[in-house]
Amino acid sequence: MERPVTLHVDGTARKLSVDTRTTLLDALREQLAVTASKKGCDHGQCGACTVLLDGRRVLACLVLAVTCDRSEVTTADGLGGSGSPHPVQRALLEHDGLQCGYCTPGQACSAVGMLDEAKAGWPSAVTEDPRQNVELTEDEIRERMSGNLCRCGAYPNIVAALREAIR
């Protein structure tokens, strides 16, 4: 069964008709030709498909597109302004926080979401005192980014990049 959906992708309203079983990732890639989010495992285990949905990070392979009607979807392409990368993207480049680059869009979106979560005071599994402001230590960054895998093993550089972006 097809349903009309309007997605606001990277600041642009896009109308489409989707099968009710279509994931947000497939709608983005196959119907809208928005390929910043990558299909890795297609089971929510690798994080390559991470996008921001109304400002919160989600795994686009696990979200049905029909549930996103009239939502704001931000991919890695929509993080920075015109010709100006987001500070997280800039830091990933400066610290060589990527090798093959396949996971990088998901890493960048997840990092932006992580920064917003920490700023809002959301604790993680390693937060020492959830009643205090969250300090994004290396352990906090690793824990909060643990849902985004990098097959190349660029983790030390990714953490260094995110430490810089926090500053």
TrEMBL record:
This is Xanthine dehydrogenase YagT iron-sulfur-binding subunit. Gene3D superfamilies: 3.10.20.30, [2Fe-2S]-binding domain. It holds the Pfam family Fer2_2. Pathway: Alkaloid degradation; nicotine degradation. GO terms for molecular function: 2 iron, 2 sulfur cluster binding; metal ion binding; oxidoreductase activity, acting on the aldehyde or oxo group of donors. PROSITE patterns: 2FE2S_FER_1, 2FE2S_FER_2. PANTHER family: OXIDOREDUCTASE, IRON-SULPHUR BINDING SUBUNIT-RELATED-RELATED (PTHR45331). It comes from the Bacteria. InterPro entries: 2Fe-2S-bd, 2Fe-2S-bd_dom_sf, 2Fe-2S_ferredoxin-like_sf, 2Fe-2S_ferredoxin-type, 2Fe2S_fd_BS, Aldehyde_Oxdr_Iron-Sulfur, Beta-grasp_dom_sf. Transmembrane segments: none annotated. Residues 3-79 form the 2Fe-2S ferredoxin-type domain. The keyword Metal-binding applies. Keywords: 2Fe-2S, Iron, Iron-sulfur, Metal-binding, Oxidoreductase.
